[in-house]
Amino acid sequence: MTPHCKARRLAGGNHPDGNPLRTALALAAAGAPILPLRAGKVPFGNCRTCKANACGGRPNMKAAGPCQCPSPCHAWAAATTDPHLLTSLVWASVWREAVAVAYHPGGAGLTVVDLDNTAAVAWARETLPATRTVRTTRGEHWLYQGGMPSANAVRPGIDIKYLMQ
Ligand SMILES: [Zn+2]
Ligand SMILES: [Zn+2]
Q: Would you list the domain boundaries of the chain?
């Protein structure tokens, strides 16, 4: 009785993670503010108005400013869970160039169990409490509310991420 699973198969073909926007929307729906990354896995640069922080920066930056720019400027300060913003026209051009999606689970009070392969996913299905899941290239992310210490390679193919550097 999980009607949403089927709808997810419609796009993306053999590459469920080939569409960063879809991954972003799934993570955002789970409460993780996301930020698109371009080639080299770095944030997109600021727009002309925001160049060199000429706009003063965003309200959620260390040096808080008035910037309300609709583009993903100011790197992490632009991370959002707002699906309307993520699917806006302004972000559409960003998604065409995006190669990955970054998010900060600790900042969102989430813990992510990163299951790298089908064996790890099978282990999680038998062992972990059911929760929100997001498909990745080779496996799945399982997202839990609340923190727990990060640990890499808890078992082969499994990482626990709370605070990502
Ligand atoms: Zn801007
Ligand atoms: Zn700005």
A: 20-103, 105-161
- Residue 92: which H helix or E strand, with range? helix 89-97
> Which residues are CB-contacts of 66 (< 8 A; sequence separation ≥ 6)?
55, 56, 59
Q: Which amino acid is at 138?
A: R
For ligand 1, a single-atom ion, the residues with CB < 5 A are 47, 50, 69, 71, 73
Residue pLDDT, tens place only, 95-130: 999 988 888 777 778 888 989 999 999 999 999 999
CA of 46 to the centre of ligand 1 (A): 5
Task: Pick the most confident of 7-11, 14-18, 78-82, 104-108.
Answer: 78-82
End-to-end C-alpha distance for the chain, whole angstroms:
37
Q: Are 94 and 45 in contact (CB under 8 A)?
A: no
Q: What is the pTM of this model?
A: 0.70
Q: What distance in angstroms lies between residue 67's CA and the mean position of ligand 1's atoms? A: 8
